[in-house]
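Hi team,

Below is the intake form for EAL domain-containing protein from Silvania confinis. Please confirm the fields before the structure is written into the shared record.

FORM ID: S-0412
PROTEIN: EAL domain-containing protein
ORGANISM: Silvania confinis
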Amino acid sequence: MSLYKQLLIGICLFTFVIFCGNFVVTLETSREQYRNQLSAHAQDAATALGLSLTTHIDDPTMTELMVNSIFDSGYFYRIRVVDITTNKPIIERNDVPQDTRVPQWFVRLVNLSPGEGDAIVMRGWSQVARVEVVSHPMFALARLWDGMVASFWWLTGCSLLFILGVTLLLRRMLRPLNYIVGQAMAICRREFLNVPALPKTPELRRVVEATNMMVTQLKVLFSEQAQRSETLRKEAYSDSLTGLSNRRAFDMQLQSRLSDEENASGHLMLLRVQDLIGMNQRLGGAKTDQLLTSVATILTGLQRNYFHNEGFLSRVRGGEFAIIAPQILPQEIENLTQTLSTQLKALAETGMSDVSPVAHFALVPFQVGDTPQAVLMQADQALAMAETEMRFFASPETPSASDSEADLHSWHTRLDTVLTHEAFELFSQPVYQCNNAHVVLHHKILARIRTPEGELVPAGRFMPWIHRLDLSRRMDIVMLQQTLNEMAKSTRPLALSISGASVADDQSLNALLQPLKNVPQLAARLTLELDENELPDAERVNILVSRLKDLGCRLGIQHFGGRFHLIGNLPQWGLAWIKVDGSYIRDIDSEEDKKLFIEAIYWATRQINLPLIAERVETAGELAVLEKIGLYGAMGRYFADASTLGVN
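The structure came back. Fields below:
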């Protein structure tokens, strides 16, 4: 029972006790007074009537007239004149006065006895008659009832005002307790909040100060753990000079890209700064480092503008840089080459390099299933050809522009048909508890499309065209609607990936969430997932999480690991889970640096009770290491391949 209800009941009981006590005291003190008043009233009436009848006792008409006059003038139960000699009444009047204001239960409760009085009527020196008067207590009961009613309303009004005042006072005084509850709930949501204003009450002030100190300490511990983890990641996977990913991270990403059928084919771009050793001797180390930093900045802008941050940029070694990019069309290659050539020439013109061209680069395609060694060898050969022929750019034979336009039209027609008819084939892959492979946490939804020939096309082949044709928002809505239709047939919790474009602005977000608003009973079993590289800014993520929370839905992050600085925002987002990218899981049982990195992420997320799930677990050795670290869940081919949603 809440404090307010207890207070209300307590004050009502207090009022009732006060009223009952007041009634008893008033009744006991007033009973004798009213009894004496009633007796005096009866005696006065009897005496007055006796004196009046002294000269008229022998006149029956006059006697009756005087008795009636007295009887009708007040509250009398009975008046009679009795002959002393025969003891028979000469005249008698009886009545029971009524007062509708006084209830009978009150009359019975008070039980006020009537007052009695008598007087002798004389004829000379002889006693002729006796006057007997009995007063009725109705007027006393009416006065007592009015007093009790007035007392009741007075006490009731005072009690209500007291309840209102105490309620407002308690709300103000106990408001910090609500903030403390909010703090505790925020910690459960992995947020760290401080009470903005300290209460004036010393006891509550100490409690609030203690909770604020606790929250601050938790936040500091988490920040320190996140900072240590970020430092570890930079040491293991970042280039100290340019801030880009290093060769170790590049090898992991390339291996992951080539081994996962859910990924699409793409291009590897390799750039090598010309005569780096010679420039280092001629211009000095500081100048050379400045050149490498400038090249890294140019490639970062290139990745952002041409690949929409979908590519993976790294400094492989020395003056060699690499970008793992999605598939690039011939006309895009031409624009990219011209842009990069212009920017590199500007470096030579500003004196940052004394050779021309500043660098050579090569672009080679790759397919899922290729080996990293073969792709790198092909890129090295193309780059060597460019250096030998003193060309800025080299690439193996690429499809003609007409072929690319035909592919573009073909894919647009195919995807538009699938989206119009909501004809995606839904597959799912189970996610298990890491230490209990029999417990399924949820199922991850995967999309396939079926060709007219009956072939199932994985997402890795058509998703690049979805992005290139700007169909991401439309696909997310269709996939969400199809997923909700399937959820209505079962009780399994599901996870569905969405694109960053669908949450980038309010209009897109409203369109995406509309299907969820129609079926709120299903939203609690659905978690939407955003790729780490597609996360909007922190404020936008807060809005997204809040909107999803209102619908009963949650948000998770998948393919996490490359943007580890985001971990500082995790406490305020209240995510459902984080899924670590499979490139950090592959061969974790034999590569100590990956194990240390996953342990760092685990301990950082454990501080805020955020579940950590491993993607693409493929061997028992990998799972054993993850279980030992303490990860919450795992998914991958070791457990099960993707299968049709209805048969999991």
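SUMMARY LINE: The chain has a mean pLDDT of 83.

Thanks, M.
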